[in-house]
Amino acid sequence: MHTGGAPDPEHLAILSRALDRLNEVFAALPAAPEHTRPEAAAPAIALQAVLQETATRMQDNFPYHHPLYAGQMLKPPHAVAQLAYAMAMSVNPNNHALDGGRASSAMEREAVAGIAAMFGWDAPLGHLTSGGTMANLEALWVAGRLHPKRRIVASEQAHYTHGRITEVLKIPFQAIAHDAQARMDMSALQAALDVGEVGTVVVTLGTTAAGAVDPLPQILRLRERYGFRIHVDSAYGGYYRLAGNLAPQAHAAYEAISEVDSIVVDPHKHGLQPYGCGCVLFKDPSVGRFYRHDSPYTYFSSKELHLGEISLECSRAGAAAVALWATMQCFPLQRGGAFAQGLEACREAALELHRRVSADARFLAGPTPELDIVVWAPRGASASEVSARSQAVFEAAAREDLHLAVASFPRAMFPHWPLQWDAERVTCLRSCLMKPEHREWVGEIWTRLARATDAVLAA
Ligand SMILES: *Cc1c(COP(=O)(O)O)cnc(C)c1O
Description:
This protein is of the alpha/beta class. The chain has 13 helices and eleven strands.
């Protein structure tokens, strides 16, 4: 279970003992045999057959858990998260209201407080969401309520969700140019601020495509002059606040994070959780007033805070909160701790792959990774040839059981590539090295990448 591979029998025994402990509390209830339900009648033999068929269908996947999967943002949930989630599923709590999930709501509040403390906040408003998209939607919704009609701006390298969310919210949006490091360009931002009517700047710490870290300290200085709200989208990169091996620019951005107004981080990206776990935090808890509603349907029975009173989503998996809470008991969010060391190993893996690519004439290297994402391409005479070769190496590598990703970037990212620019964008190879074991696997990844690239360049 640890890496998403074969279930560890010891883990299944641990789960079984945990379920026994959980069910002690219901032991005094009169027996209510399940077989009185029509759908409970499925005999074990049918369950067995259907599960086998389901497993066969699920074979159609890349081996996400394996270090040779070094493509998109996929990281196996830790065993403690899988076990805690499975146990909580037997209760199936709903963190919308305390009536639907008392224990899991309390665990959510504790887990969220732990994440907030990582960012240096001790009393924010915050909660879990189904993912980064919903978390960002809530942050921009609040931003729009505070600054109606004023623009929200974000880098062209920000996640595309911001453009779409502002469309849903009917808030004007402007994309800001980026530099060769894929960071928001400060003169372009300043030009937008000079035009006026900017209500909120979205700062990405860890862009989805390249893992770039926008220059938050400079943006904070611009805030002093122009006055605007800052939302940090660190859905991918938020946990890198704990890493001790960032370069000075990225380190300074993370150190300044407590100065912003809202933050998004996805425990289901780098936080060892299964999908369905994002988090949004607001520095000023009084923004909770925007969530107020007066629904006749909800079952808020007590005067205590129900998470549904401070979130846009209604029903939400309490099991996700339980899994996150349990994971944070095993791996507290501490600098120098095992979890932080894991992130540091990912970054070392990325730097090592980038170093090898930079030193090899078969490749064109992208910017030095700020986190753990590497961007590069096989060499070629023109942008279109490089794009075609990137796609071909991506496919050839997959035949070597090495799974990379491709991503398209604008010419502005690669001012030093000696290319004939016959297109404004170029397709590159991209690798999210999100598993600590990637550090030990860079050699094997390199061997397979080199073989795939040689085959493409020879063709
Ligand atoms: C992944 C990501 C999102 C979207 O989050 P989901 O959890 O996929 O909904 C938004 N912003 C950034 C920077 C991301 O990396």
